[in-house]
Design a protein that fits this description.
The complex is a heterotrimer.
Chain A (H helix, E strand, L loop, with lengths): L1 E2 L21 E11 L2 E8 L13 E6 L2 E6 L9 E7 L7 H7 L6 E4 L14 E7 L3 H13 L4 E7 L8 H8 L4 E5 H12 L7 E6 L2 H13 L7 E3 L13 E5 L5 E4 L5 H7 L17 E6 L2 E2 L7 H6 L2 E3 L4 E2 L3 E4 L2
Parallel strand pairs in A: 8-9, 8-11, 9-10, 11-12, 13-19
Antiparallel strand pairs in A: 2-3, 2-7, 3-6, 4-5, 13-14, 15-17, 15-19, 16-18
Chain B lengths: L25 E7 H18 L3 E6 L8 H9 L4 E8 H13 L7 E6 L4 E5 L4 E5 L6 E3 L6 E9 L4 E6 L8
Parallel strand pairs in B: 1-2, 1-3, 3-4, 5-9
Antiparallel strand pairs in B: 5-6, 7-8, 8-9
Chain C lengths: L5 H6 L17 E2 L4 E2 L4 E2 L10 H14 L4 E3 L4 H18 L4 E6 L2 E6 L4 E6 L3 H4 L3 H6 L5 E8 L2 E8 L8 H4 L4 H4 L11 H10 L7 E10 L10 H10 L7 H4 E12 L6 E11 H4 L3 H13 L2 H6 L6 H18 L2
Antiparallel strand pairs in C: 1-10, 2-3, 4-9, 5-6, 6-7, 8-9, 8-12, 10-11, 11-12
The chains are: A alpha/beta, B alpha/beta, C alpha+beta.
């Protein structure tokens, strides 16, 4: 029995392309609009096909002027024609948002990751309380779209500073209507609103928060004081750890004497396969244990879900489909 | 037996009653039977010293637990509510089932199971429940279809019931 | 009843044993990879439409009329059911472009199924346009059984499903259980870490990356509905099949489930598709590699697994017959 390589779906934008990283998409900037410090981009596929559906609250990682930044998707989420993001210009950040504001133009191409879901809606919730601060409204926008499509009860509390513009306000008002959107300006007003609303939510409600760190912590504190268990509180924290392509390292094959380079962004398994060193494998995600290889020397960097804590500390084997090396050279029993 | 009791869906209850969760903002306490009453009274005393709103219901346990009052309280409950129940297992399963249907999550529920309980056994062949004093592995006649069921180590929290199935389908018929 | 040419059935059969002995493992692998077998191919798509399509869907309909409890949808799973509809119809169309199509026109979808003479224009979220509850409609168009799991509180809850061809379990009883609770009664899989690993894998499953695994048991006669509900009907056959040894290899079937594990993007729910295939031992034995391997697997299988899989009464007779078929083939030089 042999398993043929996976067939990508013919019209899928995930089909192999010149994308820098495996699975990433090349999209074209089809539209740009700027309101104050917020620039909203519409990104479309190069072939005009619809883009992969995503779970509301998802974000994409964008390669922007040499940096990688995560931005929430704000638009329609079922086979959308475009991905839409809103970027706040941060003058003293890593430069990604400055590049998007100052250097990016309509018609240009961007390399973006597939959507990643880390802030999903809670289908079973009786009611969603969506709290956003400033640019934190972005993932909340797709939550609102989901709530409307699936007829779920929701309300939005949108906190903004006195002197700042309010990103996407017109669209927000259109999506929420008058009864489901509360604007709150300044800390005192926001705190008062939260203290009132969070004390009167029916059992079964959930709280989703996205905004600047201190604002999220303050909201969480108010909720906790009012008896909300942590399981009901969900915050959007972007994390790009799992996408970390890792440092390159050299692998020595003890039995054959060969040496291979494992570049950044290429898995050890892929490097071995490219060098025609066969390793049994199945899930290619670090869970099934099939690609386990014995380690003779060097410290593995374990990224799998298979090994026990003792097996990890022993450092005498690793899952080559996901794990890498802490040291420059790793010697394997191959 | 290679089925791990720690991992079946049969609930495992700790021996000691749980404490009151002090982070709640209001409490619903249900108890049945004398042993249940004793545990619940310690809880209600603790809640009184927290000076937080309390609704308590006690049932003698002689007839099936009346759930109407609890249903009404749950329908009006706010986030911040904690539900606590001290009773034999069948009543505990019923209270927890009702609370979850009203939107409660595990972090908001605390239960203490007192000894000697009827089980509710679900018969999938005729889809009816049978109640009897039983343990897993016992057999019982189904009140719906009269087949002899064996009580299996599989519990549905949604139904508040153990799964039974026909014990003698694969016996030779003589 | 032999509705279909044996050779077609065999050529698509997903023979489930990679080795001469069988144990539970977290045997997940990426989906949509064709598996080339000794006599054919399977696994190119996540939805499999074969020559039994019309007959099996009629049988499903009869089962649902007799027992509507085989389809259960908890209220909050509506979004997941719509997602599942799009995913299943879309894949069926990709796999069968000559007879099926799913096209989008603005806010509507148009599903066309020449096999059933079905043409339907529907709007997501609007049951009136579909003429049915979405999960029930999906089940009327594909042969797979479907279970939908909601991910929340770090658990996966089987909160909806349409299962008419269960192998000795009851959806009605299991609905509302977590993934871990569902697998409680299975021997070994918790202690050996198989289920916890599968669980961690599923929690991190991403949209647009479907996986699959296989499961197996044996059935007496080509009876698809082997649910706990109807156990009094099929249970006695497990003993009864031994009454006439001549018929044993025609009545005893190797029953295989191909399970697809798919993250549905819109709702974030996980969809389990379960596709059941059966071949009688006599047909299986026409493939030399399969008859020797299955005999070896049956002989070696530990008693607790034999009992859990319901093979207690006929493990030895089945193995013995396969071995006799092997001996006969050797004797005649086949």
């Amino acid at each position: 029995m042999t398993v043929a390589p996976a067939q990508p779906l013919a019209s899928s934008p995930l089909a192999p392309s010149a994308a820098v990283r495996e699975g990433w998409l090349i999209l074209r900037v089809a539209g740009v609009s700027t309101a104050g410090r917020v620039r909203t981009l519409r990104l479309v596929s190069l072939t005009g096909d619809t883009l992969p559906s995503f779970t509301p609250g998802s974000h994409i990682v964008v390669e922007a002027g040499g940096r990688t930044n995560a931005y929430s998707l704000t638009g329609d989420f079922l086979e959308p024609i475009a991905y839409e993001i809103s970027v706040l210009r941060i003058p003293d950040g890593n430069g990604g948002s400055r590049w998007i504001h100052d250097d990016l133009d309509v018609g240009q191409e961007l390399s973006v990751s597939p959507p990643r879901s880390a802030f999903p809606p809670v289908a079973s919730a009786q009611h969603h309380v969506l709290v956003a601060g400033g640019i934190g409204i972005t993932p909340i926008l797709s939550h609102i779209r989901a709530a409307r499509l699936y007829h779920r009860s929701f309300e939005v509390i949108y906190a903004h500073r006195h002197d700042a513009e309010v990103p996407r306000l017109r669209e927000l008002r259109a999506l929420c209507g008058p009864d489901r959107l509360e604007l709150a300006q300044g800390r005192a007003q926001v705190t008062a609103r939260l203290r009132k609303r969070l004390a009167e939510q029916p059992l079964g409600s959930v709280l989703l928060i996205c905004g600047p760190g201190p604002m999220m912590e303050a909201t969480e504190t108010i909720a906790t004081e009012l008896g909300w268990p942590s399981q009901r509180i969900h915050t959007e924290r972007f994390s790009t750890e799992a996408l970390d392509p890792g440092s390159p390292f050299t692998v020595k094959l003890a039995r054959s004497g060969r040496q291979l380079l494992v570049p950044s962004g290429v898995s050890l398994l892929e490097a071995l396969e490219a060098a025609e060193v066969p390793v049994p494998n199945l899930c290619r995600r670090g869970v099934c244990g099939e690609c386990r290889v014995a380690v003779k020397a060097g410290r593995p960097e374990h990224r799998d879900l298979f090994l026990s804590d003792e097996e990890r500390t022993a450092n005498d084997s690793l899952m080559c489909c996901v794990s890498r090396a802490h040291d420059a050279v790793l010697e394997l029993e191959l | 037996m290679t089925v791990s009791p720690d991992h079946t869906s049969v609930p495992r209850w700790p021996d000691e009653p749980p404490d009151v969760d002090p982070t709640g903002s209001s409490y619903l306490v249900v108890s049945t039977g004398e042993a249940g009453r004793a545990v619940a009274s310690r809880w209600t005393a603790a809640i009184a010293s927290l000076a937080k709103p309390l609704w308590a219901h006690h049932d003698s346990g002689e007839s099936p637990l009346a759930l109407d009052g609890l249903s009404r309280e749950l329908a009006a409950a706010r986030v911040g509510t904690r539900v606590m129940v001290a009773a034999p297992e069948r009543d505990v399963l019923d209270v927890l089932r009702l609370a979850r249907a009203a939107g409660a999550v595990d972090a908001e529920l605390r239960a203490h199971v007192t000894p000697a309980s009827d089980l509710r056994v679900y018969c999938p062949h005729c889809r009816t429940d049978t109640h009897a004093r039983l343990s897993v592995g016992d057999t019982v006649a189904c009140e719906g279809c009269h087949r002899t069921l064996i009580v299996y180590h599989h519990v549905s929290r949604l139904h508040g019931a153990y799964l039974g199935y026909m014990v003698d389908a694969e016996e030779p018929t003589t | 009843m032999n509705r279909v040419a044996a050779s077609d059935r065999l050529s698509r059969f997903p023979f489930p044993y990679p080795q001469d002995h069988y144990r539970y493992s977290t045997n997940v692998e990426p989906a949509r990879r064709p598996v080339i077998t000794e006599v054919g191919e399977w696994g190119r798509w996540t939805i499999d439409v074969d020559d039994e399509y019309e007959a099996e869907l009629r049988e499903r309909e009869e089962i649902l009329v007799a027992d509507p409890s085989r389809c259960v949808v908890l209220a909050h799973m509506r979004a997941a059911c719509w997602d599942s509809l799009l995913e299943c119809l879309g894949e069926a169309a990709r796999a069968n472009p000559a007879t099926m199509s799913l096209t989008r026109e603005g806010n509507s979808y148009v599903w066309s199924n020449a096999r059933l003479g079905e043409e339907r224009r529907f709007v997501i979220g609007d049951e009136d346009t579909l003429g049915a509850e979405p999960l029930a409609y999906t089940g009327s168009q594909v042969q797979e059984d479907i279970v939908l799991l909601d991910q929340r509180e770090g658990q996966l809850w089987a909160d909806a499903g349409l299962v008419t061809f269960a192998a000795d379990w009851s959806l009605r009883f299991d609905v509302g259980m977590t993934f871990l609770e569902l697998h409680g009664p299975v021997p070994r899989v918790h202690v050996e870490g198989v289920i916890p690993r599968a669980h961690r894998f599923l929690l991190r499953l991403e949209a647009h990356h479907p996986y699959r695994r296989t499961n197996w048991t044996m059935s007496v006669d080509r009876r698809l509905d082997q649910s706990t509900e109807t156990y009094p009907e099929w249970g006695p056959d497990r003993l009864g099949v031994l009454e006439n040894p001549e018929l044993l290899p025609d009545r005893l079937q190797l029953r295989v489930e191909v399970q697809h594990l798919i993250r549905l993007p819109g709702s974030g729910a996980i969809m389990f598709l379960i596709r059941t295939s059966m071949v009688p031992l006599r047909e299986l034995a026409t493939v030399p590699a399969w008859r020797t391997r299955m005999a070896a697997v049956l002989r070696e299988l530990p008693q607790d697994m034999v009992d859990y899989k319901g093979l207690t009464h006929f493990r030895d007779p089945a193995a013995a017959w396969l071995e006799s078929a092997q001996a006969a083939a050797i004797a005649t030089g086949a």
